[in-house]
Inverse folding.
């Protein structure tokens, strides 16, 4: 094939592409917000709305409650002993939960996998079971390993878990049986704890991987 | 080289056709996710979560005291282009021993949530209903086989109008779910 013919084909391709773009352009504009900023501004840095939508800061850290959780790996998690040099993310959830709980864990894992090691290594993730009767140690271990084997999870008697969660403002309840259905609650938010367990803020429900990725570097720098 | 150019041209043409073809209100079907249609009902953005196979020794599915966590969620958007309200009233699949409709209800003033089984998911006339994380979802209880990313799950959806809709949805890593 001659170079000239090649050029004409390339031109044809360009024309077709341009037509396609023009043809769809109007559709795009109709559905767009029409603002001058566009998506680039929304995704921008520096107090951007991604972070604001994902995280709510406490004006002053909310003090840690007493109480401990016995983790599936045999270790003990104490809120007031949340480790130095780490930011601890605490989630109240359960493993027989197909919807919000695993999505929350998956989104945190996804964010940590994308962040640099010097940030990700300073974030601990702690699941506190809201269904300690059914969440066995092997089940917790297997469930967490599906997201990130470094995540920890454990149990305490449910009344203690409810008290611990409510101290931080998370309104879970003990599981109940309603009309034959075993109903378990989970927390909506994920707590961010500084060393010593003071809650510096919380990630809103379903903050998404982008939300965690946008907020965690700043939190780690400030608190861990 | 020229073949590449021609291919680019065809692709551009195809992309243009596909993008511009959706002039009406029907959501464009994204082939990364399951989609199907029957009559005035269309399903788009269908997918299911990964889950281990349920242990065969477990007897009663409601007594999960000794079973490993084995439950998948299926999600999609339903669009009703007709003039009559409809509702999703049932799902059947060979991929799980039970398929139930659930919703996640907010508790504790928005600081908690719990799942409730529902009998129907409304799909009003001329509207779309999105089943999504934190809202309506199909709970696939005790999968009959391990569900891993790349697998597919066949679902039959039953509607109040009597319509049945068969769809095959991909099993996805949650990170790849429709935004």
């Amino acid at each position: 094939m001659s170079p000239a013919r090649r050029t004409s084909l390339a031109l044809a391709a360009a024309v077709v592409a341009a037509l396609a773009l023009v043809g769809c352009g109007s559709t795009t504009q109709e559905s767009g917000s029409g603002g001058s900023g566009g998506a680039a501004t929304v995704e921008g840095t520096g107090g951007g709305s991604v972070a604001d939508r994902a995280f709510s800061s406490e004006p002053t850290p909310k003090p840690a409650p007493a109480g401990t959780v016995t983790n599936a790996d045999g270790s003990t998690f104490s809120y007031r002993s949340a480790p130095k040099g780490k930011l601890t993310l605490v989630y109240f959830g359960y493993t027989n939960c197909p919807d919000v709980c695993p999505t929350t864990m998956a989104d945190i894992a996804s964010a940590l996998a994308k962040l640099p090691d010097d940030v990700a290594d300073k974030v601990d993730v702690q699941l506190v079971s809201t269904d300690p009767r059914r969440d066995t140690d092997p089940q917790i271990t297997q469930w967490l390993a599906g997201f990130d084997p470094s995540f920890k999870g454990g149990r305490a008697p449910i009344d203690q878990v409810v008290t611990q969660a409510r101290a931080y403002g998370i309104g879970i309840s003990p599981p109940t049986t309603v009309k034959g259905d075993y109903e378990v609650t989970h927390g909506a938010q994920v707590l961010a704890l500084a060393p010593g367990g003071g809650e510096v803020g919380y990630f809103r429900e379903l903050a998404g991987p982008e939300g965690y990725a946008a907020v965690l570097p700043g939190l780690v720098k400030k608190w861990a | 080289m020229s073949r590449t150019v021609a291919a680019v041209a065809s692709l551009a043409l195809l992309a243009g056709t596909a993008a511009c073809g959706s002039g009406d209100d029907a959501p464009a079907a994204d082939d990364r996710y399951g989609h199907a249609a029957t009559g005035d009902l269309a399903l788009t953005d269908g997918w299911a979560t990964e889950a281990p196979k349920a242990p065969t020794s477990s007897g009663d599915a409601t007594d999960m005291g000794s079973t490993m966590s084995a439950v998948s969620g299926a999600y999609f958007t339903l669009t009703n282009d007709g003039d009559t309200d409809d509702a999703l009233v049932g799902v059947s699949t060979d991929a799980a021993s039970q398929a139930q409709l659930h919703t996640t209800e907010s508790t504790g003033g928005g600081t908690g949530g719990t799942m409730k089984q529902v009998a129907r998911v409304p799909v009003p006339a001329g509207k779309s209903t999105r089943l999504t994380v934190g809202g309506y979802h199909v709970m696939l209880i005790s999968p009959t086989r391990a569900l891993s990313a790349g697998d597919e799950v066949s679902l039959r959806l039953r509607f109040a109008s009597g319509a049945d809709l068969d769809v095959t949805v991909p099993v996805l890593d949650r990170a790849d779910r429709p935004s």
In short: Residues 2-21 of chain B form the longest helix (20 residues). Confidence is low (pLDDT under 50) at residues 4-24, 57-68 of chain B. Chain B has one domain: 30-176. The domain at 30-176 of chain B is CATH 2.60.40.1890 (Immunoglobulin-like).
